Protein 1
Amino acid sequence: AQSVSQHNHHVILSEAASLELGCNYSYGGTVNLFWYVQYPGQHLQLLLKYFSGDPLVKGIKGFEAEFIKSKFSFNLRKPSVQWSDTAEYFCAVNTGRSYIPTFGRGTSLIVHP
Amino acid sequence: DSGVTQTPKHLITATGQRVTLRCSPRSGDLSVYWYQQSLDQGLQFLIQYYNGEERAKGNILERFSAQQFPDLHSELNLSSLELGDSALYFCASSAGRDNQPQHFGDGTRLSIL
């Protein structure tokens, strides 16, 4: 079965700093990759997804992620964070064998104004 | 607003008790997914229903059961509750049968005393 690792459990940044959150998965076959965001007290929302094609994926709110197959990674990036980006971020993966995504443990991001 | 409604938002009960969590999917969605989010286990997939039938099963305990009714709302029943069942229980929905959950509810926070 696939698994997802998010190595950064807590990240604290100041506004305007650049962000990169790590995500690695373990599965040798075809994967679909997702990043979700959960703002305080709100439901999970899809930030971006990768199914195929250009490995650099643009999402909402200025986020992007790059799929590097050789590294089994799908890191999330944003060049300049805002206070409103304070949230929990989850990486997830599903495969051709199981469409139910497996989620990472999440990364808590706090952005100081 | 995701369109997915979960009730109640908070539930406090004691060990050994039984509770029922309710979820109404986004209008037009036929699939309902249940997830458990806890500090030690992260976001775990429990079960999926599609148009009234069980479609996929994850890490759901035998003490837990779910069903989806003809009006497509779903209920998750948790019985013989233990302290470790304290968690946030999410419901999600999607239109299709074999795809990932797309719209998430705000969750029910279950606290076992």
Protein 2
Amino acid sequence: DAKTTQPNSMESNEEEPVHLPCNHSTISGTDYIHWYRQLPSQGPEYVIHGLTSNVNNRMASLAIAEDRKSSTLILHRATLRDAAVYYCIPPQGGSEKLVFGKGTKLTVNP
Amino acid sequence: NAGVTQTPKFRVLKTGQSMTLLCAQDMNHEYMYWYRQDPGMGLRLIHYSVGEGTTAKGEVPDGYNVSRLKKQNFLLGLESAAPSQTSVYFCASSSTFGTGTSYEQYFGPGTRLTVT
């Protein structure tokens, strides 16, 4: 399995941008990089995915390094509701598995 | 749409007892999954199904059985519960399959199981 490295935790203030980094240096194949998040006491939810170039959706932006060995999830204006564990899920060569590591716990301060 | 629902929400079992967790989805998704999440850990895939009548083993299948008799339901069974199976169980479904696509899985709220 491809391995990821994410900070255990990060803090942000409300309405400020947040950059959540992920290192997936052992990336294999040409599959998508996915990000999910898990709000307290809930199941994970999909955030965004990308292949090679930067991607935007209503929830976040995803910046992918040119060599695809790292990516950064960007929340443009953090809200209290964005407090969650964020999982960076690297490509797995077409695998059925979404490999969830320990993720980054984001705390948003009012 | 209710999305993905799980029954029950909580359960306490004694070692050796059996139980079935029910997952239902109303999105007409072909693919369904069962995960477990232990404290402070990420999710691990137990079993999955690529269609009605099919099941396959995931990362940690031992001690569990599954069935997918109807497209909308995916059942997870514990035949003889052990304390090591104390965990939160999440069901998910998706319309696509594999990390080679936009792999958006929709998760249920979870079942918190304690085995004493």
Protein 3
Amino acid sequence: ETGVTQTPRHLVMGMTNKKSLKCEQHLGHNAMYWYKQSAKKPLELMFVYSLEERVENNSVPSRFSPECPNSSHLFLHLHTLQPEDSALYLCASSHAGGPGTDTQYFGPGTRLTVL
Amino acid sequence: LAKTTQPISMDSYEGQEVNITCSHNNIATNDYITWYQQFPSQGPRFIIQGYKTKVTNEVASLFIPADRKSSTLSLPRVSLSDTAVYYCLVGDIMNSGYSTLTFGKGTMLLVSP
């Protein structure tokens, strides 16, 4: 599926590095999400953008900084991460305003390893 | 917020029908019930969503009793490729906000030959 793409698919970084994760959706949606999935843990919602405005920030440490320049692109800027931040980072998009929890379309994820 | 409870794991064989039940005793009036499927190292994939009674699509059926305190995802004639984690999600963004997007631990379905 090419509806939601994420790059890179794998990333290894040191604790002092700065890197960015990129997400792009080709579905014409107006909401985008970042989730974190650690080993053997449920998905954790990190950030939500609706109509390019941040509408949810679930007490995420400031070393994670999201950016949504337009409705099709979402970035997650990373700096001075900790080893416990190693996880699968998933991007999703949806058409906001639907019933229930909005049907979300997920990307393949970026597997992040912090050394 | 409605919390959900699912079995941690289930086993089945190819060709069988599998029913996964999710309990959500505190479901609110406006909440919908949504199921996702996730393969290892991939993002979840939407399966089906419903509000009450029965919903069916080309992949699965969703049964919701009148009290809506539980729901059952039914997968007809499973194959090996249906081995995955299945999540039940209950909520309503418009009334409860995005904090309603709470994925639980899901049910790991293992399909054997």
Protein 4
Amino acid sequence: DIQMTQSPWSLSASVGDRVTITCRASQTISNYVNWYQQKPGKAPKLLIHAASTLESGVPSRFSGSGSGADFTLTINSLQPEDFATYFCQQTFYAPYTFGQGTKLEI
Amino acid sequence: EVQLVESGGGLVQPGGSLRLSCAASGFAFGRYWMHWVRQGPGKGLVWVSRVYSDESTTAYADSVRGRFTTSRDNAKNTLYLQMNSLRADDTAVYYCGRAPHDSAWHEIDHWGQGTLVTVSS
């Protein structure tokens, strides 16, 4: 199975900051990475698929990049509503494993 | 409006069985691949299974293969997860989600609200 190592596990930041979350796959997976945001008690929300394609309605301060085995999610100019937990997921082949998650805190 | 509503969760003893359902509405259910994802208390997301739009192909996480079965009834717009030989570490909120059939990235673009399964004696 493909392992997704996400870092950091937690991140403290302030409104207006720029933050980067990384995911490293245990093998090359082209651009088969999706990113999700989850707030406490809620279902996850899709932010980005295919490593860099922003979903409709997601603010442009979110961006994704990477190919091969290394991927990043960047959030520019953090807003209060961005404080949540973020997960990467590989869908190169099943089982479609998630990273451990990054909790973004104030 | 796209809606996915899970049901069937509850308390079950170790070794027991449970069947989860996910009722879909607001979209052409038969054209979407469907996934189950779970999340243990205070834990991260764990992908569980996937079924193609015509139920032709399923896939499972190693931890549930042989114990869980995913199926769907396109006429009833419903996804199922049959869970047998349940263990304490299956305790989690179980989410269903849809993925566009014409996307190679299996991105889950809509999720249900989840149903809690607790395995305990």
